[in-house]
Design a protein that fits this description.
Elements lengths: L2 H16 L3 E6 L2 H4 L3 H14 L6 E6 L11 E4 L3 E3 L8 H10 L24 H4 L17 H6 L4 H9 L2 H11 L11 H10 L6 E6 L8 H8 L1 H15 L3 E7 L3 H17 L14 E7 L8 H8 L23 E5 H13 L1 H5 L2 E2 L2 E2 L1 E8 L5 E6 L4 H8 L9 E6 L5 E4 L9 H6 L8 E6 L4 H15 L5 H18 L5 H17 L3 H5 L2 H9 L1 H10 L11 H4 L4 H4 L1
Parallel strand pairs: 1-2, 5-6, 5-8, 6-7, 11-15
Antiparallel strand pairs: 1-3, 3-4, 9-10, 11-12, 13-14, 13-15
Length: about 575
């Protein structure tokens, strides 16, 4: 593949699109597919053909558009009009009114019938207005199974630029200037990580993409892989060039069959065009990539456990150092970043590290993708500048609490994170600010709770998750999470005592400090944060034998076990 050939493909694809008056993108992410987006896609194509509109209207499948609970979604370009809850039965109006008569169907516009005001240009809606799309800029507007569509929007230009006009040191310097931090949860500076791998000498080096997204309520990486797989491949190839690797592995959890399918298609297409292979853009640089499918073990999201799994071993973490940068896959220097991190790379190389660093916060540049779920009106996928407040995310973008309920807490960081209470709604979504209130950014899961959520029960849920997902290699995690879960169960069923609470407060820091890997080290976080902000709920369960939220089933025998003083 040469520069001239890449330009020719882009020109051909753009000419094809320019020949059409409109392009209809049907959200074909996993969420919309689960509610018959395939039927909508087929129905639209048939209606367009039946009305002799095929010469001027193109209908394509696309990735996630973000407003997941309003799907299936159909985007009409160039108007940027999104229709919601489209079915094979009601799509006729879109074709007959909007396409044929240029009269948008007001009753089907995105957010029609909700508290938000629907708009003809969806970008002007409250849901999208404060978002900044970098990682998700192609999701929902291109066909993820068509490499030419990706190339038409500038795809693989950054890779060509890197291998043809930049040295490895130049690429790393650009990444360092960007201020991008790893989006997998730890937030380690990406450029520094790349530089470390680059400096280690080895006859072979590897790059790995961590797509083992396992946090409850998280679907950020899945959506990127489903909606823009070539973007991730391009980011990996640039990273491989920068650190001196020639081989890459995409580690994707087996519960993501659509993501795996689209990655397989993307790899096959890229190899066919010569974009992946032995001579990238006639530079002499080689890079090839394979997919490895995980079996669903949460612990394999940890770097050393993931490496063991790729090698065909049981996914167990190993003590560090040595770190993967020095001795990783098959004992060779290895770079590991997650899906979102790699998806940020092409625009940084294409537009410059300085451009990226101007977004977000001084010590945490760029944007962050979040998956909104729970008791919030607008659940779905969003991308916002780092530093936006939690209040803006939940009430401006998310539309507030379902049913006009009262906000109680937001869980960030999944099982590794903590809960943010109402008094900290104005906390900035920034690594340092979130850590100060007892939680973490994590990979981007954001679960919203209202007054009907019981915080001890929330802590029990996440502790149970960690207990079941523990690999069992180290005693603090294997035994400690089980003990914490047992005491939380006693409290939630009205059998807990103040001694149980004391033991929890003693045990949680020990598990945190003594566990081998990040799973055990972070497992106590939900417990510790709920104790910090909602201790009164624990006391109500223990001393008064009642659940203030009305969630826990406290046996009548427990409720009659003496006075609060005796129980204490």
């Amino acid at each position: 593949m040469s520069l001239q050939e890449l330009k020719a493909i882009a020109e051909k694809a753009n000419a094809r699109k320019a020949a059409k008056k409109r392009r209809l993108c049907v959200c074909s992410g996993a969420s919309c597919l689960s509610i018959n987006a395939e039927g909508v896609l087929a129905g639209l194509r048939k209606h367009v053909a039946d009305r002799n509109l095929a010469a001027e209207v193109e209908v394509i499948p696309s990735g996630c558009m973000g407003a997941c609970n309003q799907g299936p979604l159909v985007l009409v370009q160039p108007e940027s009009t999104i229709y919601q809850k489209v079915t094979p039965e009601n799509l006729t109006a879109i074709v007959d009114e909007h396409l044929a008569k240029n009269q948008p169907v007001q009753s089907m516009l995105l957010f029609a019938g909700t508290s938000q005001e629907p708009t003809l240009d969806s970008r002007q809606s409250d849901f999208f207005r404060k978002q900044v799309k970098v990682v998700l800029e192609n999701c929902g507007v291109i066909n993820p199974e068509d490499i030419e569509d990706y190339i038409s929007v500038g795809g693989y230009q950054a890779l060509r630029k890197a291998v043809s006009t930049m040295s490895r040191e130049d690429v790393i310097a650009e990444m360092k200037q960007s201020g991008l931090r790893g989006r997998g949860g730890a937030g380690y500076p990406t450029g520094l990580k790349w530089e470390t791998v680059y400096k280690y000498v080895g006859d072979e080096k590897y790059v790995i993409c961590n797509g083992d997204e396992g946090d409850p309520g998280a679907f950020m990486d899945r959506s990127v892989l489903e909606g823009d797989p070539h973007r991730v491949l391009e980011g990996m190839a640039i990273a491989a060039y920068a650190v001196g690797a020639t081989k890459g592995y995409l580690y994707v959890r087996g519960e993501y069959p659509l993501a795996i399918k689209r990655l397989e298609i993307a790899i096959k297409q890229a190899k066919k065009l010569g974009i992946l292979g032995a001579n990238l853009f006639e530079s002499g640089v080689a890079f090839d990539v394979e997919i490895r499918i995980g079996a669903g073990a949460f612990v394999c999201g940890e770097e050393t456990a993931l490496i063991a799994s790729v090698e065909g071993k049981r996914g167990l973490p190993s003590p560090r150092p040595p770190y993967p940068a020095e001795r990783g896959l098959w004992g060779k220097p290895t770079l590991i970043n997650n899906v979102e991190t790699y998806a940020n790379v092409p625009p940084i190389i294409d537009r410059g590290g300085e451009w990226y660093s101007e977004m977000g916060m001084p010590k945490a540049a760029g944007t962050k993708v979040f998956a909104l779920s729970g008791k919030i009106n607008n659940t779905g996928l969003i991308e916002v500048p780092i530093g936006i407040t939690l209040r803006e995310v939940l009430f401006d973008i998310g539309g507030g609490i379902q049913g006009g309920g009262k906000f109680k807490a937001a869980q960030t960081g999944g099982p590794s994170g903590g809960c943010i209470p109402e008094q900290h709604l104005d906390t900035k979504m920034d690594y340092a600010a979130l850590q100060a209130v007892g939680t973490i950014m994590g990979s981007g899961g954001l679960i919203v709770m209202d007054e009907h959520s019981c915080m001890p029960d929330v802590a029990r849920f996440f502790t149970e998750f960690c207990m079941e997902e523990s690999c069992g290699k180290c005693i603090p995690c294997r035994v400690g999470t089980k003990q914490m879960h047992g005491m939380l169960t006693k409290i939630c069923t009205g059998r807990g005592t103040m001694r149980d609470l004391e033991l929890l407060e003693e045990l949680a820091p020990m598990v945190k400090e003594a566990s081998l890997c990040g799973l055990g080290q972070s497992a106590p976080n939900p417990l510790l944060s709920t104790l910090r902000y909602f201790r009164d709920e624990y006391l109500a369960h223990i001393q008064e034998k009642r659940c203030p939220a009305g969630v826990c089933k406290i046996a009548s025998s427990a409720a009659s076990e003496g006075s609060p003083k005796e129980v204490a």
